[in-house]
Amino acid sequence: QGKQKKARKYAVMKRMISLRDERINPKDRAKPPPKKKEDPSALKEREVPQHPSCLFFQYNTQLGPPYHILVDTNFINFSIKAKLDLVQSMMDCLYAKCIPCITDCVMAEIEKLGQKYRVALRIAKDPRFERLPCMHKGTYADDCLVQRVTQHKCYIVATVDKELKRRIRKIPGVPIMYISRHRYNIERMPDDYGAPRF
Fold it and tell me: Which residues does the UniProt record annotate as the domain PIN (predicted)?
C-alpha cells in the first residue's frame, strides 16, 4: 500500500502576540509612542471643500477690483530683468487698480539672496505693497502662497516658477499672473461676462 499524500500548507505563519498585549509582564511590555505636541506656528493641513461657496461655476465671485496680487520672489526678479514697473504693468494688464501683496517669507527669501538682489529688496519695500504677516516656521514661500490661496480665494498669484504654477492650477478659481514677451499676462482670468478665459 502507498503512503497517503498530505497537501503542504504554504505561507503558514505562527501567530504572535503583540508586544503591547496585556498578557505580557508590565516590565517587558512595549510602551506606547510619546504624543507630539502640536506646534501652533506650523502650517495646518486642513481638508478643503471640493467646491468652495465663492465659485459660481468656474467664476470666482470674490475676485474684483481692486485686485490683490500675491507676488512671488522670482516675479520681482524677472520684472527687473524685463524692465517693467510692477504696479503700473499690473494695472495695464488688468485695466483696474491692483494692490501687490508681499508675505514675510517672500521678503525673507529676497533678503537671503544678498547684495546682488538689493534692487528687488528695495522694490519689495515699496509703500504701495501690502505686507502680509506669516505665522509659520521657515522661509519657504511656495507652501505659504498655496495655503493662502486655498483658504482665501480673493488673490491672484504672480509667479514665473513652473512648479508653483502647476500647484496653483489644481486650485479652482485662482488666476495666475506671469511674464511673457516683456509684458504681464494673466491665466485663468474670467472676462466681463463671467465665462472663464483660459
Answer: 67-166
